[in-house]
Amino acid sequence: MIQQKIKIKKNSLDVKHLENNHLSIQFSLGGFSFCVLDRENNTFIALNDYDFVEPNNSPQRLIANISSIFGNDELLKQHYNSVSVTHINDLFTLVPKPLFNEDRLQDYVSFNTKVYPQDYLVFDELKNMDIVSVFIPFVNINNFLIDQFSHFEYKHNSTVLIENLLAIYKYSLVPKVFAHMANGHFELIVIANKKLQFYNTFKFSTKEDFIYYVLFTAEQLKLNPEKFEFLFLGSIEKTDDIFAMAYKYIRNVSLLENRSKYSFDEAFSETDKRTYYSILNQY
Questions:
Q1: Which of 274, 218, 212 is nearest to 242 (CA)?
Q2: Could you tell me which CDD domains the record lists for this protein (predicted)?
Q3: Residue 116 forms part of a structural domain
Q4: Would the pTM of this model clear 0.90, i.e. be above it?
Q5: CA distance readout (Å), 117 to 60, 62, 92, 124
Q6: How many domains does the chain have?
């Protein structure tokens, strides 16, 4: 079953004339979202987010859900100047560029997940970094999107988060630890000494699971919870139990502030900008 989680739209938006705008799409086994950027004014003017209530445990169910959304959402029936796509899954690994060999993609990902001979692997070279993200995309969804838009660029969610956070916080004087919260999982990113020190995805079900992964990672990296700055982004509020748990064990905890290079229509709240950080910074 599909549930629309949020619908944001500029009041005066003419949905029939979006051909000069950019469309960003993001999806995982648990949901699908997209946003529209007015390229002329560098302003986000629409965002829709859908949850898949039943887990998509097969490519067929995932494509059925996304196809249904395209059949019913008016914004997805329009023509756009450009389209970009983000795949969210844990079928990836990060490789130092000096060690990267394009002929060994399957070997890299097999360290973290089961890889089958028929799996199609691709990679992103992260901007201004000696890092390559190797991943298995949802090929059936890419094929579906080709039928809809003819051409689009796609990347892994790890690329979006690392590039954007490092671009802003690379020269921070204190280590920064980021938790990008989603439904049932979170990405943990550590930036210190002008470099990415750590990136991984963790599945969790309780606040105790969450803080264990955070503190264990900090211990392995020899980071002092009294000194590093911990920032939440994604689906999180100060009133959430997860925030309170982090604050119990870490001295400096806060919500990520919006530092986007783009503007936002007044329909977007500060919470929206933080919740949908990855898709709003995809393009």
A1: 212
A2: ASKHA_ATPase_BT3980-like (cd24013)
A3: yes
A4: yes
A5: 20, 22, 16, 21
A6: 2
- Picking from 63, 77, 62, 70, the residue whose alpha carbon sits closest to that of residue 29 is 62
Domain that holds residue 234: 163-255
CA distance 238 to 221: 26
Q: 8 CB contacts (<8 Å, ≥6 apart)?
A: 46, 47, 48, 265, 267, 268, 272
Residue found under tokens 């991984």: 200
CATH number, residue 229: 3.30.420.260
Which residue type does 170 have?
K
| Structural Rg of the chain based on CA atoms | 19
Interior CA angle at 7 toward 6 and 11, to 5°? 150
pLDDT by position in tens, the chain (length 283): 899 999 999 999 999 999 999 999 999 999 999 999 999 999 999 999 999 988 666 778 899 999 999 999 999 999 999 999 999 999 999 999 999 999 999 999 999 899 999 999 999 999 989 999 999 999 999 999 999 999 999 999 999 999 999 999 999 999 999 999 998 999 999 999 999 999 999 999 999 999 999 999 999 999 999 999 999 999 999 999 999 999 999 999 999 999 999 999 999 999 999 999 999 999 9
Q: How far apart are CA 75 and CA 112, in angstroms?
A: 37
